[in-house]
Amino acid sequence: MAHMIVKHSVEDFGTWKPVFDGDAGRRSDAGCRSTDVYRDATDPNAVTVVLEFGSQDQAHAFANDPALAETMKKAGVKGRPDISFLNAVE
Question: SS3 for 28-53, per residue?
């Protein structure tokens, strides 16, 4: 099991969330098994998304898909996101 963690600031969470939700099919097609969305306790426009994939190859392919950058732009992501990849140990 592989995880991709994406941290970014958005212009407005209320605008970002429907775009994120509308991208669920593309995430699923890319092998994403689940997602968890978190908002910073002091900045509601600082968002962290944890995505679970079956493999690191799937996670990296999703992260490098030009459609992801386009969706982020449409959703109002500010700046470059911080993306990390993790392997589950337990």
Answer: HHCCEEEEEEEECCCCCCEEEEEEEE
Helical axes 66-75 vs 13-22, angle rounded to 10°: 150
- Over residues 36-50, the pLDDT tens digits come to 999 999 999 999 999
Query: How much is the pLDDT for 90?
Result: 73
The domain of 61 spans 2-87
CATH number at residue 7: 3.30.70.100
41 within 8 A of 72, measured Cβ to Cβ? no
